[in-house]
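For consistency, the fold was encoded as C-alpha cells, which produced the following:
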Amino acid sequence: QVQLVETGGGLVQAGGSLRLSCAASIETFSKYAMGWFRQGPGQEREFVATISRNAIITYYADSVKGRFTISRDNSKNTVYLQMNSLKPEDTAIYYCAAKYSPSSPYSTAGSRSQMYDYWGQGTQVTVSS
C-alpha cells in the first residue's frame, strides 16, 4: 500500500554535498509527516530531520543543524534531504520514513523512530576524510 524509495546516496569527500530524495507511493502524501533517519555501521538508528505535512515546520538533530535541509514537494510525492559540509561521521544508511497525520498538518512526526508508520529501504552515504 505504501512504498518509500530513497535515492541519491553515494561516496563523497568531506566537505562535499549530496541531495537525497525519497519518492513516496502514497495516495494521500500530503497527509503524512515525513522524516529522515540514519544508521551507521554497528550503530543504532538515529534521528536526522523531520518535516510537517505542509512543510512549514521542520526539526533537526543537533549534529546536522546548519548543514542539512529537509524539504518536500507534495505535488511530486517526494521528500528531500540536502546535505552540505558533509563529515565522515555522517557516513550511514539513510532512511526515509512517513507518519500518517490526518489531524495535524502543522506538526512533524518527531524524533522517535517508533512514531513513524512506514520506512524505505535506505540509501548508503559514505563520506571520506
Observations:
- The first strand starts at residue 3 and ends at 7.
